[in-house]
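Researcher: I'm preparing a figure for a lab meeting and need a structural model of a single chain. I don't have an experimental structure, so a prediction will have to do for now. The sequence is pasted below. Please return the structure as tokens so I can convert it later.
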Amino acid sequence: MKIKHNKKRNTAFIYESLIREATVAIIKKDDTKRQKVINVIKEYFSADSALKKDLECYQSLYTHQDLNKDISERILFETKMQRKMINPQQIFDEQTKLINVVNKEISPSVFSNFVPNYKTLATIAQMFSDKVDPKNKVLLENKIVSNMCLTKEESSFDQQIDKNVYNVFARKFNDKYNNTLLENQKNLLNYYVNSFTDNALSLKVFLNEEITTLKEKLIEAKNLPEIKEDEEMLIKTDSVVEKLESFNGTEISEDILLTVLKTQNLVEEIYTDGNNS
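Model: Understood. Here is the structure written out token by token.
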């Protein structure tokens, strides 16, 4: 028997929806809303809260992939044991308070945010439920294990981002600079949209590697005839390299992201023109 899934009682869904709400606020430069959402996340998902412990159980089952079946089954077993130790009434009470706060202080529309892995979160919620019969519980567990065994390519990183948020930033960049996004630009925006899920760790790693690559390509480009023989182009190239170097140790901002996006486009143009000449 399949039980009806209530997404407002799905701790991971609420968390992911709030993360996307905060990301939209950042892109729109709505500092008031951004801070309000972050404060709610910090308060209701603090280390000693039941919701934080519940979220960690969900995350153990949907943030790990490309694992073998044995490891996946062991993680599932341990996760089920951990969740049984959380007081279900405490989870329910904290969810109720959080739902009320979101509705009154942020917006009921938060619960309508696009969450790419919604089906996976719903499957986990049903598996956690004590209203599911043994047969269906086993089938749900097998589905979760199968998902954990998927490779990163099979799960598709592009499908994990919030398409609405991605489109807002992409359109903003395209309208301002009249460019079509390159593959490395798409990757940068993907990491940016998901930066809240790991405290921007993945974004910082990607940016560090990307900026290093861009600097190396710009320095190499100075040997190309069309740049080497043009003093103004040499000065501009050095200026861009210096700008990228100035980002070292700087807090990630929209200005940095836009600069890197423009530089990615510049490097593409330089080497495309150079190969065509």
